[in-house]
Design goal:
Keywords: Arsenical resistance. The protein contains five helices and four strands; from the N terminus they run βαβαβαβαα. The chain has 168 residues and is of the alpha/beta class. The protein has a single domain, classed as Response regulator (Rossmann fold, 3-Layer(aba) Sandwich). Helix 1 links the parallel strand 1 and strand 2. Helix 1 packs across helix 4 and helix 2 packs across helix 4.
């Protein structure tokens, strides 16, 4: 991609849009080298829900900006006037099994499943480590995406490329 090429818009989906999808959005915007613009949303974010505080803490500790991160419904991105998505990635199994809105432009889709770092009864120290591990796993996969050659990111090939990355 040259500097004049528009960035690829990537939407990360999870049920509540409070943990994994927020981590992926922030991380790709940080490491995407201007080639990507990441967003996140959920199928059923709780009213007034904010990103998980431990997720924000892990991002801050990793030096990833968290300004502007918020939990939002995926319907926001299916509405008229929403940014056109090139790639939509579900990061939790529940969202992968749900019936998604019809996305304008028929973007490529993939499922990159990660366990919920906030699940269970572990004390905050254990959950903090789970968020750290999830961020690390996302970083490895997103680094592969960011470093793909331009031809692998062309619309016709993006579908297969994104799904191939689900095996890393």
């Amino acid at each position: 991609m040259t500097d004049t090429t528009a960035p690829l818009n990537v939407l990360f989906l999870c049920t509540h849009n409070a943990g994994r999808s927020i981590l992926a959005e922030a991380l790709l915007n940080d490491i995407g080298q201007g080639r990507f613009h990441a967003y996140s949303a959920g199928s059923s974010p709780r009213p007034g829900e904010l990103p998980h505080p431990l997720g924000l803490q892990v991002l801050r500790r990793a030096g990833v900006p968290v300004d502007g991160l918020r939990s939002k419904s995926w319907h926001e991105f299916a509405a008229p006037g929403a940014p056109h998505m090139d790639l939509i990635i579900t990061v939790c199994d529940d969202a992968a099994e749900e019936v998604c809105p019809v996305w304008p432009g028929h973007p490529a889709t993939a499922h990159w499943g990660y366990p919920d770092p906030a699940a269970g009864d572990a004390p905050d120290e254990g959950k903090l480590e789970a968020f750290r591990q999830t961020l690390h796993m996302l970083h490895r996969r997103l680094e592969l995406l960011v470093n793909l050659p331009t031809d692998k990111l062309e619309k016709a090939r993006l579908q297969g490329t994104a799904r191939d990355l689900s095996h890393h």
